[in-house]
Amino acid sequence: MTAAAGPLGGSPLWSHPGLGLHAVLGASGSVRLGTPGQEWATLVPLVEVTATGHGRLWSGERFIETAIGDRLAYRDHGTVRDGDRERTTIRLADPETGLAAEVLLETVAGAGALRSRVRLVNEGVAPLRLESVSTLTLGGITDPDGGVDGLTLHWADNDWLAECRWREAPFREHIAPLSRFAHGHEGRGCFERHSQGSWSTGRHLPMGALTDRSGRTWLWQIESSAGWRFETGEREGAAYAALFGPDDAHHQWWHTLAPGKEFVTVPAVLVRGGTGGLDTAFGELTDHRRRFRRDHPDRRALPVIYNDYMNTLMGDPTTGKLLPLVAAAARAGAEVFVIDAGWYDDDAQGWWDAVGAWEPARGRFPGGIHEVLDAIRGHGMVPGLWLEPEVVGVRSPLARSLPPEAFFRRGGLRVTEHGRHHLDLRHPAARAHLDAVVDRLVGEWGVGYLKLDYNINSGPGTEHGPESPGAGLLGHHRAHLDWLSGLLDRHPGLVLENCGSGGLRMDYAQLSVAQLQSTSDQQDPLRYPPVAAAAATAVTPEQAAVWAYPQPDHTTDRIAFTLTGALLGRIHLSGFLDRMDDEQFDLVRSAIRVYKDIRPAIAEARPFWPLGLPGWDDAWIAHGLRGHGSTYVTVWRRERPGAPASRTLTLPHLRGVDLRPEVLQPTTADATAEWDPAEGELTVGLPRPDTAVLLGLGGTA
User: Is 273 helix (H, G, I), strand (E, B) or coil?
Assistant: First the structure.
């Protein structure tokens, strides 16, 4: 990485050889980001801004080609180095409005990732009503032929029970070729994906990619829990990508920037993968996520977690039901035991719309909840509890005792969604209430794990005075992240699981602070494999909590199937283990032993997908982790008409390595694995459908 001493017309101000990127200063003072050798016209201004009274130069669906972005001119730049990290700030200014922009580009030596944020300051004399601000723009993306016809788009749909469904399509399928020569301008449209409401991943993951025929990849991630959008399209014969936080058109976000005030965008990350395609790019992104998240002992320990909810107690815990599960979970090898939803429920009308006080239900725990917590500790496990901190039920006493300003409001009315109100953690009363709750549960009760759920989409946000709903949502979520950090500052050993009805708030604003991410609420073990396999695209493997819920009425194959699928992430064990016979229970214990053997490698390995990213209905699915000296691959075979009994997987990083595949889990699958070192191909046979196998392979990454 280099930074020139000063601006030279057409020469780079900043460059990153690993990414093949540079920021170039043009003759007009505009700064643009792109790859060397691209024509100036294909690039996009480094910062794009729309504001009321200052829109776009070419009207349409795009949020590029803005009037302010076109005027922002170079002031200066500087670089600060801190160990292997480099932070370059490029400063721009708009002479018409007085808006100043500082673009912070963060990189790590030898890494193929760039993280960007933009700080805007109003140095003018009049307020400026912002309507959209880019965090990162990149132009000049082409295929090896210098055009866009060989580019492929990648994005991920997301839904409750059906998370991380990656899709791809030719770039030209969504961006039609137009006659630029005949019309004198580009089209008005683009390919875009964006969030809606307070579930940041309720529709899509905040990620996308462009690949070319050679396998070169641009992959991006937006780190926001409060609105995001990306777009890509064609500009002067090349593709561009522009990454945004919330905006007015999609999130009801606008922000009035008074003279002397500032606004900082949400961060975004851009990754460049070599010819290894998406696997290489996701590997770089995994490394980046590990560098930029909060450090915590859980990152290295990866304890086995038992949770009583999924396909087991389902929100109906009692002392009588829990104590046998506690004993069985400990015998199976669990190290954390989480009492999930319902532990606070003593309401004859049900707990859903009465939550908020987070006191134990006396009827559920006649001897007190401490009897169960003590039993968990007595079996050598850390006790955990489920909590949904941001909501208060409409029938909860807290709905009346907390001040109105402590809740989300729009149009002067309190927001109500699915029987709940939503706390605004910018208000001191809301924060004090939740601090008292957590300090009681953790500091007094000795709880060491909190599953923090989030089960409503509150809509565009909250209005506080003249602020827009989207600005209110962004303000709340920044306060929420600050609150989470405060919990960990006070309780350094506390482990926080991020859950949003499964994976509906699965973004790296949350996951830069929380230690784990619930990947899904999927209860059907045969539908879980595509979620489990693709989860490492959205989160690091050691943060990806995957349910394993074997039951006493399952066949041996079904027990093995649900256990095996969780072993390359964070195993979330559930099921009525206390009712199993010895043979069934031994299968569970065997899987946990395997997990404990391999988990040191999980925390450092990169993910890969030997059959490509999974399709929702694929018969064969494969997901692997490659580390220093070891490779692990999980292979699922689901029953589908005409599906073969074996598949060949290509593992190019092991080509030429003489190794013997080892079946680690389960030994009951009758699996076969044959390795061809010359071709780097692994042929896996699973004679019976609806079975899965975890294989261990030697060799280095």
Answer: strand
Write down the residue that tokens 């469904």 correspond to: 165
CA distances from 420 to 136, 227, 407, 456, 502 (A): 36, 21, 11, 8, 18
Tokens representing 439?
């300090």
Of 298, 323, 305, 575, nearest to 451 by C-alpha is 305
Print burial letters for 447-461: b (CB count within 10 Å at least 16), e (below 16): bbbbbbbbbbbbbbb
Rounded CA gap, 573 and 588, in Å?
9
Give the DSSP letter of residue 500: B
pLDDT score recorded for residue 10: 63
Q: Which 3 state secondary structure label does DSSP give 192?
A: strand
Q: Kindly list the distances between the CA atom of residue 544 and the CA atoms of 502, 519, 570, 634, in Å, as whole numbers in the listed order.
A: 11, 6, 6, 15
- Longest Cα separation, the chain: 81
Q: Token pair for residue 318? A: 């009692």
Question: Dihedral of the CA atoms 559, 565, 567, 573 (nearest 10)?
Answer: -50
CA gap 223, 266 in Å, rounded: 6
Whether residue 4 is predicted with pLDDT greater than 60 in this model: the reply is: no
Residue 2 predicted with pLDDT over 80: no
Please list, residue by residue across 4-15, b when 16 or more beta carbons sit within 10 angstroms of its beta carbon and e when fewer do.
eeebeeeebbbb
Residue 567 and residue 599: Cα distance in Å, rounded? 8
* % of residues, the chain, pLDDT over 90: 94
- Number of H helices and E strands in the chain, helices first, is 14, 41
pLDDT at 640 over 70: yes
Mention every residue, 6+ apart, whose C-beta is less than 8 A from residue 43. Answer: 24, 32, 33, 34, 139, 140, 240
What pLDDT, on a 0 to 100 scale, did the predictor assign at position 668? 79
pLDDT of residue 12: 84
Separation of alpha carbons 690 and 117, rounded Å: 46
At 699, the pLDDT band (50, 70, 90 cuts) reads low
For 183, counting Cβ atoms within 10 Å of its Cβ (0-12 exposed, 13-18 middle, 19+ buried), the class is exposed
The whole-angstrom separation of Cα 350 and Cα 364 is 13
Domains of the chain: 2-292 (2.70.98.60), 298-518 (3.20.20.70), 608-697 (2.60.40)
Kind plus residue range of the DSSP H or E element containing 479: helix 469-490
DSSP character at residue 538: H
Residue 570 DSSP SS3? strand
Which pLDDT tens digit goes with each residue over 607-617? 999 999 999 99
Distance of CA 145 to the CA centre of its chain: 34
Question: Could you tell me the pTM of the whole model?
Answer: 0.97
Omega of the bond prior to 666 within 30 degrees of 0, cis? yes
Distance of alpha carbon 620 from alpha carbon 648, whole angstroms:
10
